[in-house]
Specification:
heterodimer, A: mainly alpha, B: alpha/beta, FAD/NAD(P)-binding domain, 2 domains, 7-stranded mixed beta sheet, 14 helices, 18% strand
Chain lengths: 205, 579
């Protein structure tokens, strides 16, 4: 079963991170929401469209919720020298996991958590979270991460949970496990003591 | 070796020399021993066939190739596996080896939960067992006699010692010769290594708490494979620690990797799968078991198999259920139950009590591979001194590891720095959890429900088990002593952890034992010292049902030794013409 239907292809990181992030978000939005009319430059839209595969509807979330999940996930685990959460389709995995492996109370909590983020974004920035400029988004996530104003402790707990979901989706993905972390499916034996080097990475499993 | 079509049978007019009911750890051993000793043997299994390698469908699967990344569909788990999902080994890779709770219901009294973890397939729970393999000692075999709980074991360590060696050599047990009186050494393969933190803590522990020791857990994984393992097609452990998915390397002991190939090699084994044993057939004129009546799991049709001797290896509750359902005018309350103790004295191990914390330093050290065992502190309570609150004792097991992404992802932050932080192994943690001996008590047990049936028309089991005063006090001490040890060892932020009985019901240690116990006196026990029914001499029960007490060690190695010993005895008796 495919879960990462719209996982974008990834290449070498671009030097201009701001531009890349904008592209990424637009790509995410148009890919996951089918949104076209965001007043974007044609060239940017075309670049995003070229990257995306045929649009598949989300399994549990609405398209807007999926887009918000995608943007949040990529802010949590961005592309660096390895793919980021959006690159591996973490938002699609989260949508699938919530649909299949969670029961209604957990699904509802997740959606309520997303709605809170959007409503705080509206109240504080006049726009939905996904439409805010990156700096504003980052500032809001900093408040979320500590459960501080304009968010509260419950929002902080949701963000904590969301980070768990994003990490799960990302580090169980092929790129997350094999290029970001060290993946050794068949170690061939157990060595009790190996010395760390600067290149040592956490075992994915 | 014969082909599948030869050894799988449905019906057979022939009278076998022996019938073995069950194909798990003990059923596999019984089949091996009986066939190798010349007996034409039928193994009867209620579940489906599982072929070594071929049917390990969850093995060699990367997480991203699994539909749910290793997690089980929540609705499937809720509706079909509400009990099995409580088992630590139950996941998307392994769920095919756990029984469907919806199809196989059982009952418990209100407010007294019991979680019955079952693997009904060829190989049984040997496919997903935890593999910890320990000898018992006379501290355990003499316990009932000395403190009066339970009947005296009819055997002592010396009776079993050669059989422990015998099964260890074949199964392949990795461990060190530690020279401990409470945990006799065996025929071991090379032990798994400690990691840097464990090695340091072990040194500190051993110096402070002698004669108690921290040793490496002995496990039925081939850390190295002996010649005879390699010759049997088994390869060394790859340190995947995904044993529960099945292992094509045959690196851990299971029926499929170890005993079944040996039994099939003789050409004397036949296997009837999807055959639910309804009862043992009994002839009152000769006072002998004559075979078994089975219900076909697929077609519901009834058929009979006949043999000169019947060995029950259907699991603790499974074997007792068969006996309870085998009624006649001679045995109205269950076959071989003239004593009336059939179904009583059920125990499980005391679990889910311990402590853990953070270990500072060792930032330069890591490990490679996933070790399928961990450090182990054999029993130290009531060995030399006497504890004021309880009798008997427990082991502590656990280990040290560095936090991985599952933990570090919950630390503060997001973005590039957060991702970089998760890339590096997190701080070290060390934990210990107890496994304690539950006292055998008459009121803990199993009976046939008077009205409820399963879909095959078999009476449902009604299981009643709860902890007693000694059990509760021991659990409290398990958690407290684990925490004390950790504090002494310098572990930081020590947290004591103890689940309530409701949170962690009996059964989840998956060491249910007793209900058809061995004993010296036919008036108070079902089986004699050879696992032979006092009442019906050609009927044997060699699995966990036969245990007169549960000790504190993992019991499977003892089940293996008892089974091999009982089968050798049965064959001798058959040759001598006494049965």
């Amino acid at each position: 079963m495919l879960q990462n239907g719209d996982s974008a292809a990834y290449g070498a990181p671009e030097p201009d991170h701001a531009r890349r992030n904008t592209l990424l978000r637009l790509g995410a939005l148009s890919a996951v929401c089918g949104l076209g009319a965001l007043g974007l430059h044609d060239e940017v839209l075309a670049a995003a469209a070229a990257k995306r595969k045929p649009d598949t509807p989300p399994q549990l979330l609405t398209r807007e919720e999926l887009a918000l999940t995608a943007v949040l996930a990529d802010l949590i685990i961005p592309r660096t020298d390895t793919p980021g959460a959006f690159d591996v389709g973490a938002h699609r995995t989260i949508d699938h996991m919530l649909k299949v492996c969670a029961l209604a109370p957990v699904q509802n909590e997740f959606r309520a958590g997303l709605a809170r983020i959007d409503s705080v974004a509206m109240a504080n920035g006049g726009k939905r979270f996904t439409a805010l400029p990156p700096a504003r988004q980052t500032a809001l996530l900093q408040a979320l991460d500590t459960g501080s104003a304009p968010f509260g402790a419950a929002d902080g707990r949701f963000f904590h949970q969301l980070k768990g979901y994003v990490a799960f989706a990302y580090y169980t993905s092929e790129a997350g496990a094999t290029s970001e972390l060290a993946y050794l499916p068949v170690p061939g034996g157990f060595k009790g003591d190996v010395m760390m080097t600067p290149s040592t990475r956490t075992w994915a499993i | 070796m014969e082909t599948k079509s030869t050894f799988y049978i449905k019906s057979s007019p022939e009278r076998f020399d022996a019938i073995v009911v069950g194909s798990g750890i003990t059923g596999g051993w019984a089949a091996k021993e009986l066939t190798e000793r010349g007996l034409k043997t039928l193994m009867v299994e209620r579940g489906r066939p599982v072929e070594h390698g071929i049917d390990y469908v969850g093995e060699n699967r990367d997480p991203w190739t699994m539909p749910n990344r290793g997690q089980v569909d929540a609705r499937v788990a809720e509706e079909q596996f509400p009990i099995q999902k409580q088992c630590y080994a139950f996941d998307e890779h392994t769920k095919q080896f756990f029984n469907n709770d919806r199809d196989m219901p059982y009952s418990t009294p209100d407010g007294k939960p019991f979680s019955w973890i079952r693997g009904n397939q060829l190989g049984g729970k040997s496919l997903m067992w935890a593999r910890q393999s320990y000898r018992w000692s006379d501290l355990d075999f003499e316990a009932n006699l000395k403190d009066g709980h339970g009947v005296d074991w009819p055997i002592r360590y010396a009776d079993l010692a050669p059989w422990y060696s015998y099964v260890e050599r074949h199964a392949g047990i990795s461990g060190a010769r530690d020279g401990l009186a409470v945990l006799p050494d065996g025929e071991f393969l090379k032990p798994f290594e400690f990691n840097a933190v464990e090695a340091a803590l072990k040194q500190k522990f051993d110096a402070k708490y002698a004669p108690a020791r921290m040793i490496m857990g002995r496990t039925a994984n081939l850390n190295t494979a002996a010649e005879h393992h390699l010759a049997a097609g088994r390869a060394p452990c790859q340190a995947r620690s995904q044993c529960h998915r099945g292992c094509s390397f045959g690196a851990y002991f299971s029926t499929q990797s170890s005993t079944l190939p040996a039994a099939l090699k003789t050409g004397r084994l036949r296997i009837a799968t999807d055959s639910i044993v309804h009862s043992v057939l009994y002839d009152p004129k000769t006072n002998r078991a004559t075979g078994v009546r089975v219900i076909d799991a697929q077609t519901m049709e009834t058929r009979e198999y006949h043999a000169r001797v019947v060995i029950l290896c259907a699991s603790t509750l499974g074997s007792t259920a068969v006996l309870l359902n085998s009624t006649s005018s001679a045995f109205p309350n269950g076959l071989a139950n003239s004593s009336g103790v059939l179904g009583h004295y059920l125990t499980d191990h005391l679990w889910a009590a311990g402590a853990d914390g953070r270990v500072e330093g060792f930032e330069d050290h890591y490990y490679q591979g996933r070790r399928p065992t961990g450090p182990y502190i054999p029993r130290f309570r009531n060995v030399v001194d006497k504890h004021p609150d309880f009798v008997r004792g427990y082991a502590l097991s656990g280990g040290a590891s560095r936090e991985g992404w599952q933990s570090t992802a919950h630390k503060p932050g997001f973005g590039k720095d957060y991702k970089a932080m998760i890339r590096k192994p997190g701080p070290w943690h060390f934990g210990l959890g107890g496994q304690g001996e539950m006292l055998p008590r008459f009121e803990n047990g199993v009976s046939l429900h008077p009205t409820k049936k399963d879909k095959w028309g078999m009476p449902q089991l009604h299981v009643t088990i709860s902890h007693g005063d000694n059990d509760r006090k021991m659990r409290a001490d398990m958690a407290a002593s684990a925490a004390n040890i950790l504090e002494y060892l310098g572990v930081k932020d020590v947290r004591t952890k103890m689940a309530t009985e409701a949170e962690y019901p009996p059964g989840l240690a998956i060491h249910e034992m007793g209900t058809a116990r061995m004993g010296r006196d036919p008036k108070t026990s079902i089986l004699n010292g050879w696992n032979q029914a006092h009442d019906v001499p050609n009927l044997f029960v060699t699995d966990g049902a036969s245990m007169a007490s549960g000790a504190w060690q993992n019991p499977s190695l003892t089940f293996m030794a008892l089974t091999a010993r009982a089968c050798a005895y049965a064959v001798e008796q058959m040759k001598a013409g006494t049965i």
